Amino acid sequence: MSERRIIHIDMDYFYAQVEMRDQPKLKGKPVIVGGKASGRGVVSTASYEARKYGVHSAMPMAQAHKLCPDGYYITPHFDKYKEASEKIMNIFRGYTEIVEPLSLDEAYLDITHLVRPDLPASRIAQYIREEIFQTTQLTASAGVSYNKFLAKLASGMNKPNNLTVINYHNAHDILMNLDIGEFRGVGSATKKKMNDNGIYTGQDLYNKSERELIHLFGKRGHGLYNKARGIDDSPVKSTRVRKSVGTERTFATDVNSDEEILHKIHELSDKTAERLARIQKSGKTVTVKIKTFKFETFSKQKSLRDPIRNETDIYNIAYSLYTDLKDPEVPIRLVGVTVGNLERSTYENMSIYDFI
Ligand code: DCP
Ligand code: MG
Ligand code: MG
């Protein structure tokens, strides 16, 4: 397999962080999200402050209360987590089509095609983390490497709110010092069997021959032998084809000035063009959405004969849609521009972003 660049992104203490964002008095406090202590509730997750008390995911709530009696206990708000999750997945898909979500809060991204000498994978990961924070006010950790196994390992190494790179220089040392339980696919049963056979670290695993590992673990032996060597050829499996690319912004205060709103629409058109260029797509529909100060949402769409992708074309259509849509009396809080009905770009409709 040729050289790849993979990012794994995972939100930090995800459910708890969402709750702490929405209730600022919880900042810096031990926060535990989970079911009720009565009955059989378990901990969904805990803030890093709560983890210091030994509280962790899947622990019975009653036990968490014993370990951390002064913690702040919150029952989950799944709609909020879902909303944040959709936002981050959308951000990922603005960078690459090859996104494989693993759960609400994490995904693998194959960004091989985006990397340039002046734009290393780590910088792209940093941009993504910044965009997540701007959009959701939540922090994420990212791991960057040349395969999925190492990218995921990296994202967990310096949590929370960090970026970690595993490259050909440091991979071997990191793997040799790794606890055997940290290898992907080694659950508690396998870990016990490993320990029973004298394997506690990556180094111990590395020292076993492939034959021995196949003898011990059957078909998985080959994969384990490779993992100890940092080899993992599994592809990032994107789960869906992207149908539209859009960006939206909420104003700090409700706005009624056409000038200000159109300025924003211009920025959003640029941003959308940039995203289309990154994934080399053009689209045949443009949609403008506005949300009023009363949280009512209106949108208007135009279908085109030929696909477009450049910022001027998008802006011109968005401009006319906006003027049809906007009631001069009603201030708005949010505006969005989306290009949909996507298809692969041809040379004629490329934008300036293709040439930088
Ligand atoms: N989750 C859950 N039950 C579990 C594990 C996780 O309900 N046994 C939920 C709550 C977590 C979310 O999934 O917030 C994401 O899981 P992670 O394993 O990514 O853990 P966190 O994001 O909470 O913490 P971190 O990634 O910082 O270690
Ligand atoms: Mg997480
Ligand atoms: Mg996760």
From TrEMBL:
Subcellular locations according to the entry: Cytoplasm
Gene assigned in the entry: dinB
Subunit structure: Monomer.
Cofactor detail note: Binds 2 magnesium ions per subunit.
Any one GO molecular function term: DNA-directed DNA polymerase activity
InterPro entries named in the record: DNA/RNA_pol_sf (IPR043502), DNA_pol_Y-fam_lit_finger_sf (IPR036775), DNA_pol_Y-fam_little_finger (IPR017961), DNA_polymerase-Y (IPR050116), DNApol_IV (IPR022880), IMS_HHH_1 (IPR053848), Rev_trsase/Diguanyl_cyclase (IPR043128), UmuC (IPR001126)
Pfam families associated with the record: IMS, IMS_C, IMS_HHH_1
Catalytic reaction(s) noted: DNA(n) + a 2'-deoxyribonucleoside 5'-triphosphate = DNA(n+1) + diphosphate
Organism the protein comes from: Staphylococcus marylandisciuri
Name of the protein: DNA polymerase IV
Keyword Plastid: no
Described purpose of this protein according to its UniProt entry: Poorly processive, error-prone DNA polymerase involved in untargeted mutagenesis. Copies undamaged DNA at stalled replication forks, which arise in vivo from mismatched or misaligned primer ends. These misaligned primers can be extended by PolIV. Exhibits no 3'-5' exonuclease (proofreading) activity. May be involved in translesional synthesis, in conjunction with the beta clamp from PolIII.
Keywords, comma-separated and alphabetical: Cytoplasm, DNA damage, DNA repair, DNA replication, DNA-binding, DNA-directed DNA polymerase, Magnesium, Metal-binding, Mutator protein, Nucleotidyltransferase, Transferase
Residues of the UmuC domain: 6-187
UniProt EC number: 2.7.7.7
